[in-house]
């Protein structure tokens, strides 16, 4: 990788940093310098925030053919071109990263590709994932790498195919999330949570039930899956049976009322979601400096926290992310009850942790 020579804004000392880095701690004065990533999502908007909540009337709108998109990014985000090739040479680390912009729609998102870029850089540089074991799906890719419903479903099966003890798997999704009535009595709140592929108006959404079946149930003993989902209504998107209440510092039961098995085949599934099932997630520029670079709020603070403290525990990570979000919400004068009534949908929500097994969040390190 080619590195950029960056000078500290405080003391002027030079440091080499990756070209995709958005922050750097000076080795001389220990101050943090924030940088705008060179690769940015196009078509900036005057609004600082675009919130991930497509209007319900969109479901009734006529589905038009998607326009052919020309990627504004230098080269492809993918370093993988064949799922079968990767399966035959797979390492014990594998990741699926999906960033959906809905580029031709009025409810398009601006930060999802930036999110994927940041997550991929984090996996490679900090958690040592081989680039060839990371599958990226965006509208700027081709063929099986476009995030259609069929392609995402097939890629979820690719992620867990042939998994064995010692494997670490990551599923990341940045895009719209919705919910719909649950008719199987396996949701305590009466709603199934969903993620929206690029063609969801035509082909439908991907339900939490399907995600659980595709990547949770197949996990064998010794396999660990982390799902990081930056979308609205994503709290229990994997239907995991334990949800951690950060404010009460305790695990709560999320077992389905129907009694259906939502567990793994012996492995461990952990999910970090952008918000509770009934909340909205933000696609925002509030964390950036200078230019209005859009990112998913949860993804940005997650990556920043892990880079600042590589040995962080799950509990400390939730504390750090919660503190960062509270600071942003306070800065935007949204803490008063009056402001909350006026701008209630613009409050950035706290992330949520769920798991197939209970564990001590204050001692277990966050390792992807």
Quickly count the helices: 8
Beta fraction of the residues?
Answer: 15-25%
Low-confidence stretches: 36-67, 79-88, 338-345
Mean pLDDT: 78
Number of domains: 1
Query: Helix coverage percent of residues?
Result: 10-25%
- Top-tier CATH class: Alpha Beta
Biggest sheet, spatial arrangement of strands:
7-6-8-12-15-18-13-14
Largest sheet: 8 strands, mixed
Computed Rg: 20 Å
Which class best fits the helix and strand makeup? Answer: alpha+beta
What name is given to the CATH topology? Answer: Rossmann fold
Separation, N- and C-terminal Cα atoms: 22 Å
Number of strands: 18
Shape: globular
Describe the structure in your own words.
- It is built from 8 helices and 18 strands.
- It is of the alpha+beta class and 368 residues long.
- It has one domain: Rossmann fold.
- The protein is 22% helix and 21% strand.
- The two termini are 22 Å apart.
- It is globular, with a radius of gyration of 20 Å.
């Amino acid at each position: 990788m080619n590195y950029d020579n960056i000078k500290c804004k405080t003391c002027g000392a030079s440091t080499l940093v990756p070209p995709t880095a958005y922050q750097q701690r000076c080795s001389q004065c220990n101050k943090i310098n924030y940088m705008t990533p060179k690769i940015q999502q196009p078509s900036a908007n005057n609004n600082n925030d675009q919130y991930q909540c497509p209007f319900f009337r969109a479901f009734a709108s006529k589905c038009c053919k998607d326009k052919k998109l020309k990627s504004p990014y230098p080269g492809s985000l993918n370093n993988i071109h064949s799922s079968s090739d990767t399966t035959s040479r797979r390492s014990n680390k594998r990741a699926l990263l999906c960033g959906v912009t809905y580029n031709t729609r009025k409810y398009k998102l601006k930060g999802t590709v930036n999110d994927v870029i940041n997550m991929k850089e984090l996996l490679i540089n900090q958690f040592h994932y081989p680039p060839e074991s990371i599958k990226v799906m965006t509208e700027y890719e081709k063929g099986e790498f476009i995030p259609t419903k069929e392609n995402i479903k097939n890629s979820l099966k690719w992620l867990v195919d042939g998994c064995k003890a010692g494997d670490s798997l990551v599923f990341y999704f940045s895009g719209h999330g919705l919910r719909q009535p649950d008719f199987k009595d396996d949701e305590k709140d009466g709603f199934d949570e969903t993620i929206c592929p690029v063609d969801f108006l035509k082909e439908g959404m991907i339900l939490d039930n399907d995600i659980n079946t595709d990547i949770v149930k197949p996990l064998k003993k010794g396999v660990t899956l982390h799902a990081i989902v930056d979308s609205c209504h994503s709290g229990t998107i994997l239907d995991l049976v334990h949800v951690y209440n950060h404010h009460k510092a305790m695990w709560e039961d999320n077992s389905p009322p129907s009694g259906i098995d939502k567990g793994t085949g012996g492995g461990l599934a952990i999910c970090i979601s952008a918000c509770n099932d009934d909340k909205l997630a933000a696609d925002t520029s509030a964390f950036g400096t200078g230019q209005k670079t859009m990112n998913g709020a949860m993804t940005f603070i997650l990556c920043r926290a892990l880079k600042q403290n590589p040995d962080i525990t799950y509990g400390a990570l939730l504390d750090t992310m919660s503190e960062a979000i509270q600071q942003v919400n306070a800065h935007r004068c949204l803490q008063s009850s009056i402001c909350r009534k006026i701008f209630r949908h613009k409050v950035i929500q706290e992330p949520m942790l769920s798991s197939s097994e209970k564990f001590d969040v204050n001692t277990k390190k966050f390792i992807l």
